[in-house]
Amino acid sequence: MDRFGGLLGIGPWEIHRFEPPALTDRTFRGEDGEFSMVLALAQLGDTMIELIEPLEGPSIYTEHLEDHGEGLHHVACFAFDDPHAVVETFEDAGMPVLQSGNYDGVEFWYVDTADELNGAIFETAANVDAIPKPDATYPD
């Protein structure tokens, strides 16, 4: 957060702990998932910047860190009227869901678009306006 704030003036950050019991219905590569993570969210104009720290369990985040180190992982769009249909369209085109879950009523999916988007995964979500208040902010 300090690097992004110092270099680009991004902040303040909202910190969310995505873990049970608020994090449910987790899947990873088609199986039940056991992952959890901390997200730091900040706005840069109309663009949301999201930093993710994996906490436990195998996930697309731990895979990325092991394979590439820190860096750009995914792009996201939450502006769809029917994100379920968007995910289905990707799946029908041969791009499966890599990871998904539900965070306190906010459903999210990461789709395997790495070949199509030069290594970047695509994320979408439903009900993003229901995301709970942050667990913390930075700076305080």
TrEMBL record:
Taxonomy, superkingdom: Archaea
UniProt keyword terms in alphabetical order: Lyase
InterPro entries, A to Z: Glyas_Bleomycin-R_OHBP_Dase (IPR029068)
GO molecular function, one term: lyase activity
Protein name: Lactoylglutathione lyase-like protein
